[in-house]
Amino acid sequence: MTHHHEAASGDRGATHAEVRAVTARTAMEIGPDSGQRSTRAGPQASSAPGAQGWRMIVYENRTLASAITAAVTGMLVGYPFDSLKTRMQTHYYPSLLACARRSIAEEGVRGLYRGLLPPLLTASAAKSLSFSVFEQTKQWLRRHDPFATRSAPLGVPDFQRKTVGSVALSAGVSGSISGAVIALLCCPLELIKVQMQLANLLNKDNARLVPGGASTGGSVGVLVSPPAGNLQGGGAAAATSQLRRAPAAPPWAASNLSVCREIIRRRGLFGLYYGVGLHVVRDSSGTAIYFTAYETVKETLRRLTGSDTTGPLTHMMAGGTCGVVSWLLIFPVDLIKSTMQSQVLKPSGAKGFASSWQCVRDIYARLGLGGLYRGMSVSLIRAFPIHGLNFVVYEWARGHICRLAGRPE
């Protein structure tokens, strides 16, 4: 029993010795300036969760942040091409190069950026909203897919995005809804942008009107109302001569706000939605085609390479392809929309169109089917690099945000 007590005392002594040793090592590691260490560590400890908190906020809004980054980049690079497209759609120019030379000669390079500020400010909001509606609609369709638990009849693809057909269907429906929402919100902004882009040319057209409302008989560069002879060689030369003498922008085009006021003064508040029907048709169909083409090409290339992820080259190819395909299919609608919207501030004496259908028939009668694709070259030239760049920037920003947050895409 004595041995047992001694053994127990020895065990307790050993235990106390170990505790004292651990305590001593801890004290040595902490050191005499433990207070200073804890004081220095405090801000770091508090800042780390703050930094992580911001990363998580950005991560949760990664679609918005990525879309804004892509929108601003694409707008700064592509806006001059958009200005040239609008000019070629609504006025006569022999070629894209002639349009660019004449516009720069008359208005300078800055003229190609007329009306940039509102689109630059709103494009980020519009694109982020477009991508957000698109992504949210895809998720909603997947959650409410009626064929998620049973086979679809006759091989109809579902919304689970497990096949290329399913990816295409999901992107098409989601893109159509996204485009319609954006069109309703952005119609006034695009209407103002068109007036700013065409301000000098519209002012020149108005200057040719005599008090009786008839044309002075000179060559008219406007696509909506040129005499037939003006589309021949002599007429083009006369139009070129007059375009060189273009007057300055009209007073109502001093700013985007002044354009807005002028539209309301002449057309009322609802005048800001002039051409909204064409706008909805263009954006709903165009956005559906746009996202369908992008996601289909992207998924096809991913499957061909046998990879679980996609890189910048795939994003550039898919983005460029979707830009070209969407413009090829919806360009006539865009041309009619721009033509109709360009006459919102025309004086009462100027020739215009009472309806979109009249506009289509007039252009087709004078210019044939090719007339519905006027200005197409500039859209195709910009489509592949600009839309490819948009998606490269979007996917890069999205991936970078996810890596910073340490979360999956």
UniProtKB/TrEMBL annotation:
The keyword Transmembrane helix applies. One of its GO terms (cellular component) is mitochondrial membrane. Keywords: Membrane, Mitochondrion, Repeat, Transmembrane, Transmembrane helix, Transport. It is a multi-pass membrane protein. It is found in: Mitochondrion membrane. Solcar repeats lie at residues 61-140, 166-300, 310-400. It holds the Pfam family Mito_carr. Residues 35-49 have a biased composition (Polar residues). Its main location: mitochondrion. Residues 28-49 are annotated as: Disordered. The keyword Transcription does not apply. GO terms for molecular function: transmembrane transporter activity. It comes from the Eukaryota. InterPro entries: MCP_dom_sf, MCP_transmembrane, Mitochondrial_Carrier. PANTHER family: CARRIER PROTEIN, PUTATIVE (AFU_ORTHOLOGUE AFUA_4G06390)-RELATED, MITOCHONDRIAL BASIC AMINO ACIDS TRANSPORTER-RELATED. Belongs to the mitochondrial carrier (TC 2.A.29) family. This is Mitochondrial carrier. It comes from Coemansia thaxteri.
